[in-house]
Design goal:
Blueprint: H1 10-14, H2 16-20, H3 32-61, H4 65-89, H5 94-98, H6 113-122, H7 137-147, H8 152-162, H9 169-172, H10 184-195, H11 201-232, H12 244-250, H13 257-265
Helix pairs in contact: 3-4, 3-6, 3-8, 4-11, 6-7, 8-11, 10-13, 11-12
């Protein structure tokens, strides 16, 4: 190390002392540490996903579509890692979970504000879900700002419009906080791209990167449902949701609808 570059250990660089001091089980149950670490690591992966998604959207909005491809691929692989985390959590049986479940009180993964921001950024914009964060002003400001910004899919549709494909004004000029609804003209624009990929290769690749991302995101949701059902069955969630029935309804949410419906239309 040079004099102007002080010694820096691996533990100091990564802040391991702080990291390892962030697990505080509230019971003597053996499996509570697993539960805490699984959710903490998931939040860290979601932090990275947001870092990449914000950068990808900014690149697309600036007309720099190609650099976004690497970022979108990385986010898909992040969700692959999140999927693997469910495999670890599923080693915990219902009997083991009941030994510390009361320690959770009203806390729930449903209250993850990072997950909420990811959903908003990807276009699933249910404003009513912000209410659970109203005790955290900085989080509320962040979510409000997200609702006022074009979603990742809106940014992609902007590239289609810039290429001369017909995206209706009702889609481009709507209230962004309402989210995108399926539109036949948008499907037709994607159909033009997919019928002639060599002519529209950049948009074609963008469409496939978005489909890949949603594919991994859907798998994460499905594994979430399966894990919850395996561990708590039909019990209500600790945060007051209906548990498995609510998570199953979320499986029906489609983020980039025309990119899926166009496959039937081709």
């Amino acid at each position: 190390m040079t004099q102007d570059q002080p010694d820096l250990s691996y533990a100091d660089y990564l802040g391991l002392d702080t990291l390892f001091d962030s697990q505080h089980p509230r019971s003597d149950a053996h499996d509570e540490l697993l539960f805490i670490i699984q959710h903490q690591t998931s939040e860290l992966w979601m932090r990275l996903a947001l870092h990449e998604l914000h950068a990808a959207r900014a690149a697309i909005l600036a007309g720099e579509t190609r650099p976004s491809f690497k970022m979108l691929t990385r986010v898909a692989r992040i969700f692959e890692q999140l999927n693997s985390a469910w495999d670890v959590l599923r080693t915990m049986t219902p009997s083991e979970y009941t030994t510390f479940r009361p320690s959770l009180a009203n806390s729930s993964g449903f209250q993850s504000f990072q997950y909420r921001e990811i959903e908003f950024l990807l276009g699933n914009r249910n404003k009513a879900l912000m209410n659970m964060h109203d005790s955290r002003p900085l989080v509320m400001d962040r979510l409000r700002n997200e609702l006022q910004t074009a979603s990742l899919y809106d940014a992609a549709l902007g590239r289609l419009a810039a290429a001369g494909l017909q995206i209706p004004e009702t889609v481009r000029d709507r209230d962004l906080s309402t989210g995108h609804e399926p539109d036949p003209a948008v499907e037709e624009a994607w159909r033009t791209v997919y019928r002639a990929p060599q002519t529209h290769w950049e948009l074609y690749e963008l469409g496939e990167k978005l489909v890949d991302l949603e594919d991994y995101f859907r798998r994460w949701r499905f594994n979430h449902v399966t894990t919850v059902e395996r561990v708590i069955g039909a019990k209500r969630g600790t945060g007051g949701t209906s548990g498995v029935p609510y998570l199953r309804r979320m499986l029906e949410t489609v983020l980039f609808p025309e990119l899926w419906s166009v496959r039937t239309a081709l």
